[in-house]
Structure to design on (769 residues):
C-alpha cells in the first residue's frame, strides 16, 4: 500500500470511530480553580424532578435534561472551597434505559429528613439503584419539600485547585454542545483534526525511525513524577551475566554482582559550570563476613560536563547465608544530597528472600548543576541511622579525599550519650557554678562522645590503607559539618558537645578553663586557640575551641520526605528582607516586649509583621514571603497523641495539623523558622505528625530550635545575637549560630549549645550583592 493510500485509510477509520464517539462526548472538567464556573454535560444520565448537583457532599446547582439525557448543569466553585479531589454527584437522577427502582422490591426511605445541607439526599433502595447513601439526613435545603429520594449517581472526581494570586475568577464558558457546523458539533471537527495530526505524526515517526535504524528511543522518567527540578534516580542489582537480578529472588552466596545507580542525562549542561558529584557505597555487612564491596567504593561524576548514565560498583556476596546491607550516598562537595538503602538476602529460601532498594533521605530531588553549584564545601558528613533494632549505623564521609567509612554503635549507648548531654544542658542552665567547673563537666562528657565515635571509624580506615590522623586533623579548623538522622528531625548524636582536644583522666574539679581563649573573646578578637589546638598545651585545661559546637559550623538538614518527590525550588529572597513574628502572650514572659523592641531597632531595613493571635499569624504566612519566621513561644508534646506543638497568642496551640493545606509550597522565599521555645527542636522525633516536617512541606529551608527547656533570659540573649546576624549581617546560619553561642559563653552561659540547626549550615536568608 502506498503512503497516500495509507493516509486515506487511516483517516476513514479514525473518522468512523471519532464521529459517533465525539457526538456524545461528556463535558466534565477534571481540574477546576476556586472561584470559577463550568458548564457540564453527562451522556447516559437523565435528571429526575428537582435534580441537584452536589460537590463534596454540598448542594451546588440544579441540573436538567431530557428524559433520555444528556444531563446538563452548571458547576460553580466557591472561592473558599477547600482544594483537593472532590466527588461530583447528581441526585435524584437515573441511568438512561435503566429502571429508576427495582420491580421486585419497592424503595424504602428513612424516617428522618431525606436531604441535608451537608450531603445529597439519602435513601435505602433495592440493589438495582446505584450508590445509595447510608448517612442520616438532618434538614432539607430551603425550598425543597419532603419526598421519596431517588438515585445518587457519581459523575466525576474533580480536583479543586487553589486560585493563583494573579488569577481572576473565570466566567462561564459558552455552551458549545449544541453549536453545529455543517450538522456536526465542534467536538466532532476537533476529533477529525486531531486524527489528521496523529496520522501526520505517525508518518513522520516512521520516516525518522528509518533514518535512525535500530537505535532505541531515549529513556523517559517514570510516570507520575513531575519533571521540572526532579531527577528520578534508580538503584538496582545485576547478576554476573549483566541481566537485572530479580527482586524476589535471593542472591547466590560467594558470587559476583553489580550494584548500579542510574543518574540519567542531566539537563542544563554547561549552564552553571562543572559540579562534582560523588556516588559512594557504604558496606555495612555484619562483622566477620567477607566485605561485599570488592572494588572502589567511590565514583566521581562531573555534572555539566556531559557525564551521566550508570555508575557501577563491583560486589561479591558472603559465602554463607546472611542478609547484607549497603548504603548509597550522593554527595556534592561533601554535602549528602540523597541516600539509598539496599538490603539483599543471600542464600535464603527462594520463597522467603530477595533484594530491595529504597531512598531514605533527600535534601533535594534536583541534580541540576544550577542548583548544586550554590552548595558550599563541607569537610565532613555524618549520618546516623538504624542498622537493626539494637544498633545504629554511623556513615562517615570525609570530603577531602572522598573517603567513606561505615561503623556501628549500640543504640542504647548512643541514647545514653544524648540523654546525658541534655541533662548537662538543663543542669548548667540553672547552675551558678564557676565557668571552670561548667566547662569541665561538659568536656568530660564531650570527650566520651568523641571516643565513642572515632575508635569505631579508625580501624576501618586503617584496613583500607588510610591514615586516620590527617582526616581528623582537617576538622581542627572552622569548617562545615553536617550531622544527619534520616528517620526523624531530632538528632540522636549530640554533635555540639563533642570535645576533640586532649583531656586528662581527672575529675571536673581538677580542670580549669582556658583563660587565653576568654581574654580574646572578651576583647572581641579572634581567639588564638581556633588555630587548631589550645595555646596552653595542657590536657588539664578545657578550651572552648575543642567543642564542635563552639568551633565548627554545624547543621542537621532534615529530609524533605522520600515518598512524594517535589521539584526543587531555588530561593526567591524577599527584598527587603521580611520577618513574620508570632508571639505568645503569656504574662510570665516579662522580657518579651523589651527583647522585641531591641530587635526592631537592630533591623531597620527589615519589613516587620507582628501577630499575637494564631489566626492573624496564619493569615500573614499566607500573604507574605518571609525571610525569617520567628515564633517567640512555648513548646511541648501532646503525650497522648504524640504530636508536637508550639503556643502563640493567649494559649493558642499550633501543631502540624493546624497548618492549613493551602500553605503547601507557598513560601517561595524558603524562610528559616526560629522556634524560640522549650524543646522545640525535638518536635519531630518519633512522632506521627511532626511540626518540623510540616514546616518543610510549606517551603521552609530549615528550623532552629532547642533541645531542652530554656529560660527566657537565655532565649532572648540568643535571639538578640542570631537574628541580626542572619538578616542584617547576611551571615551563614552555621556561622551565625556559632557566633551566638560564643556571645552567651562570654557571659558565662553554655546553654547556646542546646540550640540545634535543622538546616544546612551554609544557608543564607539574604541574597548576596
Amino acid at each position: 500500500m502506498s503512503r497516500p493510500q495509507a493516509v486515506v485509510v487511516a483517516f476513514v477509520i479514525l473518522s468512523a470511530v471519532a464521529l459517533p464517539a465525539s457526538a456524545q462526548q461528556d463535558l466534565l472538567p477534571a481540574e477546576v480553580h476556586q472561584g470559577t464556573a463550568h458548564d457540564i454535560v453527562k451522556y447516559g444520565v437523565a435528571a429526575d424532578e428537582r435534580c441537584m448537583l452536589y460537590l463534596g457532599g454540598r448542594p451546588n446547582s440544579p441540573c436538567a435534561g431530557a428524559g433520555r439525557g444528556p444531563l446538563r448543569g452548571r458547576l460553580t466553585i466557591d472561592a473558599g472551597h477547600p482544594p483537593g479531589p472532590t466527588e461530583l454527584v447528581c441526585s435524584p437522577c437515573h441511568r438512561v434505559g435503566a429502571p429508576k427502582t427495582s420491580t421486585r422490591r419497592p424503595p424504602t426511605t428513612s424516617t428522618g429528613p431525606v436531604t441535608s445541607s451537608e450531603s445529597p439526599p439519602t435513601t435505602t433502595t433495592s440493589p438495582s439503584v446505584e450508590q445509595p447513601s447510608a448517612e442520616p439526613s438532618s434538614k432539607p435545603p430551603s425550598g425543597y419539600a419532603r419526598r421519596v429520594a431517588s438515585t445518587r449517581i457519581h459523575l466525576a472526581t474533580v480536583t479543586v485547585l487553589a486560585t493563583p494570586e494573579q488569577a481572576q475568577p473565570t466566567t462561564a464558558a459558552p455552551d458549545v454542545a449544541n453549536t453545529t457546523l455543517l450538522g456536526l458539533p465542534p467536538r466532532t471537527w476537533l476529533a477529525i483534526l486531531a486524527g489528521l495530526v496523529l496520522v501526520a505524526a505517525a508518518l513522520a515517526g516512521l520516516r525518522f525511525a528509518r533514518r535512525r535504524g535500530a537505535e532505541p528511543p531515549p529513556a523517559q522518567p517514570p510516570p507520575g513524577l513531575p519533571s521540572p527540578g526532579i531527577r528520578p534516580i534508580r538503584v538496582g542489582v545485576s547478576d554476573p551475566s549483566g541481566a537485572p537480578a530479580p527482586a524476589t529472588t535471593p542472591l547466590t552466596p560467594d558470587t559476583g554482582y553489580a550494584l548500579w545507580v542510574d543518574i540519567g542525562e542531566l539537563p542544563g549542561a554547561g549552564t552553571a559550570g562543572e559540579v562534582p558529584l560523588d556516588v559512594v557505597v557504604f558496606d555495612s555487612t555484619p562483622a566477620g563476613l567477607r566485605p561485599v564491596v570488592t572494588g572502589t567504593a567511590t565514583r566521581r561524576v562531573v555534572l555539566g560536563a556531559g557525564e551521566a548514565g550508570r555508575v557501577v560498583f563491583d560486589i561479591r556476596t558472603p559465602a554463607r547465608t546472611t542478609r547484607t546491607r549497603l548504603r548509597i550516598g550522593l554527595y556534592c562537595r561533601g554535602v549528602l544530597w540523597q541516600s539509598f538503602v539496599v538490603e539483599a538476602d543471600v542464600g535464603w529460601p527462594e520463597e522467603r528472600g530477595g533484594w530491595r532498594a529504597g531512598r531514605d533521605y533527600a535534601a533535594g530531588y534536583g541534580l541540576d548543576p544550577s542548583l548544586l553549584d550554590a552548595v558550599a564545601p563541607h569537610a565532613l558528613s555524618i549520618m546516623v541511622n538504624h542498622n537493626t533494632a539494637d544498633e545504629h549505623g554511623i556513615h562517615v564521609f570525609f570530603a577531602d579525599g572522598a573517603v567513606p567509612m561505615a561503623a556501628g554503635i549500640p543504640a542504647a549507648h548512643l541514647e545514653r550519650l544524648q540523654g546525658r548531654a541534655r541533662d548537662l544542658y538543663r543542669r548548667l542552665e540553672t547552675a551558678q557554678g564557676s565557668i571552670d567547673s561548667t566547662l569541665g563537666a561538659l568536656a568530660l562528657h564531650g570527650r566520651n562522645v568523641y571516643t565513642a565515635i572515632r575508635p569505631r571509624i579508625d580501624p576501618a580506615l586503617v584496613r583500607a590503607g588510610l591514615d586516620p590522623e590527617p582526616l581528623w586533623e582537617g576538622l581542627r579548623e572552622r569548617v562545615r559539618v553536617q550531622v544527619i538522622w534520616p528517620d526523624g528531625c531530632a538528632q540522636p548524636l549530640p554533635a555540639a558537645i563533642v570535645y576533640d582536644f586532649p583531656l586528662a583522666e581527672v575529675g571536673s574539679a581538677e580542670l580549669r578553663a582556658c583563660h587565653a581563649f576568654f581574654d580574646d573573646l572578651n576583647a572581641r578578637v579572634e581567639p588564638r586557640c581556633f588555630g587548631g589546638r589550645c595555646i596552653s598545651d595542657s590536657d588539664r585545661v578545657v578550651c572552648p575551641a575543642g567543642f564542635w559546637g563552639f568551633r565548627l559550623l554545624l547543621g542537621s538538614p532534615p529530609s524533605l520526605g522520600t515518598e512524594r518527590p517535589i521539584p526543587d525550588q531555588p530561593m526567591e529572597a524577599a527584598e527587603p528582607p521580611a520577618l513574620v513574628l508570632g508571639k505568645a502572650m503569656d504574662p510570665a514572659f516579662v522580657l518579651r516586649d523589651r527583647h522585641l523592641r531591641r530587635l526592631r531597632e537592630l533591623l531597620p531595613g527589615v519589613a516587620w509583621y507582628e501577630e499575637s493571635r494564631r489566626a492573624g499569624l496564619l493569615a500573614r504566612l499566607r500573604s507574605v514571603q518571609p525571610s525569617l519566621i520567628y515564633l517567640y513561644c512555648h513548646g511541648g508534646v501532646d503525650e497522648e497523641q504524640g504530636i508536637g506543638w508550639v503556643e502563640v497568642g493567649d494559649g493558642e496551640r499550633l501543631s502540624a495539623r493546624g497548618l492549613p493545606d493551602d500553605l503547601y509550597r507557598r513560601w517561595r522565599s524558603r524562610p528559616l523558622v526560629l522556634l524560640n521555645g522549650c524543646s522545640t527542636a525535638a518536635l519531630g522525633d518519633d512522632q506521627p505528625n511532626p511540626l518540623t516536617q510540616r514546616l518543610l512541606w510549606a517551603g521552609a529551608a530549615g528550623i532552629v530550635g532547642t533541645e531542652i527547656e530554656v529560660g527566657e533570659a537565655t532565649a532572648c540573649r540568643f535571639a538578640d545575637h542570631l537574628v541580626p546576624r542572619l538578616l542584617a549581617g547576611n551571615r551563614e546560619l552555621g556561622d551565625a549560630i556559632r557566633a551566638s553561642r560564643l556571645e552567651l559563653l562570654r557571659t558565662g552561659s553554655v546553654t547556646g549549645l542546646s540550640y540545634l540547626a535543622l538546616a544546612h549550615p551554609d544557608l543564607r536568608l539574604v541574597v548576596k550583592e
Q: What stands out?
A: The chain has a mean pLDDT of 78. The first strand starts at residue 31 and ends at 33. The chain has 13 helices and 31 strands.
